[in-house]
C-alpha cells in the first residue's frame, strides 16, 4: 500500500495532466436548437425536488440541447517547471478571474447537478444561459482561489474529489482538507466522487470496485453528510461495461470529457470540456459555443 501511495505522489506531480484523454477532440455534440428555452423561471440557487423524477429514455435525453460544462484542474500562476502540456490544466489566477467575469458579463448562470438531472429527464426549466463549473482532483487552490472568485459572482460549482489526496501536502501541489471539502458542501456546492487514486476506470476488476468506488463514496458521505450521486471518470475515460457498476452503487450521473455520449446511457457519459490554461476569456467563450 505504501508503494502505491508513493507512486501516486509521484503521479500527483504530473496530475495536472490527469484528466486528459487522447481522444477528447471529437466534438459530437447533439445539435438541437429547439430544446433550449429562454425560460427564466429557475434561478441559480433554486432547490429542485429530484426524488420524484423518473429517468427518461436515452433518445429523449440525447435530443435535449446540452448544457455547457467546464472542467478545471489547477488555478494558479505558471512556474518555470510547468510543462507545455501541463499548462492546459493550469489556469493562471488572473485569467481564471477574467474567464469567470466573462461568463458573468455574458449572462451565464451556474447550475448544479440536481437542476441538470431535472432538465435532462423532464425538460424542467433552467436559468437563462445555464452552465456548470466542475473542478477535479482536490487541489487546494480550488478552495483558496476558486471559491472566493465564484462567491463574488454568486456562482456554485461541483468539486470532484480524489479521496487519497485529501489533506495531503505534495511537493508541488497541496490538496484540500476534509474540513474545506465540508465547507464547500455546506456552502451549497456539490461534492462528487473522482475515485480513490485516479486509476483508469476502464481497467477496473475485482477489488477495484470497492477501492475506487465504494470506499471513496463512504468517505465523502461521512465528510459531507450528503449522498454521493455524481461521479467523474479519471482521465475522462469510460466504458459501457462499467456503467452498471455505477448505477448499482446509487450514482445518478457520471461525467466524462468531450467524446461522444453513450447511446444507451447518456446520463453516465455527460460531456465536459477542459478550459485550457492557454485560453483567453474570448477563446473560452467561443469554445463553449462550439462544443455544446
Ligand atoms: Zn482527474
Features:
292 residues; alpha/beta; 11% strand; binds zinc ion; disordered N terminus; six-stranded parallel β-sheet
Proportion of beta-strand residues: 5-15%
* First-last Cα distance: 41 Å
SSE arrangement, N to C: HHEEEHEHEHEHEHEHEEH
Give the number of domains: 1
Tally of individual helices: 9
Largest sheet: 6 strands, parallel
Q: Helicity range of the residues? A: 25-40%
User: How large is the radius of gyration?
Assistant: 18 Å
CATH architecture: Alpha-Beta Barrel
CATH C-level: Alpha Beta
CATH fold-level topology: TIM Barrel
- Name the hetero compounds present: zinc ion
Principal-axis shape equals globular
Task: Reconstruct the topology from this structure.
Blueprint: H1 2-13, H2 58-63, E1 69-72, E2 74-75, E3 90-91, H3 93-105, E4 109-110, H4 113-122, E5 130-136, H5 141-153, E6 158-161, H6 178-186, E7 190-193, H7 208-224, E8 230-232, H8 243-248, E9 253-255, E10 273-274, H9 281-291
Parallel strand pairs: 1-5, 1-10, 2-3, 4-5, 5-6, 6-7, 8-9
Helix pairs in contact: 3-5, 3-9
The structure holds zinc ion (ZN).
Amino acid at each position: 500500500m505504501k508503494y502505491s501511495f508513493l507512486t501516486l505522489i509521484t503521479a500527483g506531480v504530473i496530475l495536472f495532466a490527469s484528466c486528459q484523454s487522447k481522444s477528447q477532440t471529437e466534438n459530437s455534440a447533439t445539435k438541437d436548437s429547439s430544446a433550449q428555452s429562454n425560460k427564466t423561471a429557475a434561478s441559480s440557487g433554486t432547490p429542485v425536488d429530484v426524488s420524484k423524477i423518473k429517468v427518461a429514455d436515452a433518445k429523449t435525453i440525447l435530443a435535449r440541447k446540452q448544457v455547457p460544462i467546464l472542467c478545471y484542474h489547477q488555478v494558479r500562476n505558471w512556474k518555470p517547471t510547468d510543462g507545455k502540456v501541463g499548462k492546459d490544466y493550469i489556469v493562471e489566477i488572473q485569467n481564471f478571474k477574467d474567464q469567470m467575469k466573462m461568463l458573468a458579463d455574458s449572462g451565464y448562470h451556474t447550475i448544479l447537478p440536481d437542476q441538470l438531472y431535472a432538465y435532462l429527464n423532464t425538460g424542467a426549466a433552467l436559468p437563462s444561459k445555464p452552465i456548470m463549473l466542475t473542478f477535479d482532483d482536490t487541489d487546494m487552490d480550488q478552495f483558496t482561489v476558486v471559491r472566493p472568485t465564484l462567491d463574488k459572482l454568486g456562482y456554485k460549482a461541483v468539486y470532484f474529489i480524489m479521496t487519497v489526496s485529501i489533506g495531503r501536502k505534495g511537493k508541488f501541489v497541496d490538496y484540500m482538507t476534509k474540513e474545506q471539502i465540508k465547507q464547500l458542501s455546506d456552502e451549497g456546492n456539490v461534492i462528487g466522487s473522482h475515485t480513490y487514486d485516479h486509476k483508469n476506470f476502464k481497467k477496473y476488476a475485482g477489488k477495484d470496485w470497492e477501492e475506487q468506488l465504494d470506499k471513496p463514496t463512504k468517505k465523502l458521505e461521512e465528510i459531507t453528510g450528503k449522498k454521493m450521486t455524481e461521479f467523474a471518470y479519471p482521465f475522462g475515460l469510460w466504458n459501457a461495461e462499467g456503467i452498471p457498476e455505477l448505477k448499482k452503487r446509487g450514482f445518478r450521473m457520471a461525467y466524462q470529457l468531450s467524446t461522444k455520449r453513450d447511446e444507451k446511457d447518456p446520463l453516465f457519459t455527460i460531456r465536459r470540456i477542459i478550459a485550457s490554461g492557454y485560453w483567453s476569456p474570448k477563446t473560452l467563450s467561443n469554445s463553449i459555443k462550439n462544443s455544446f
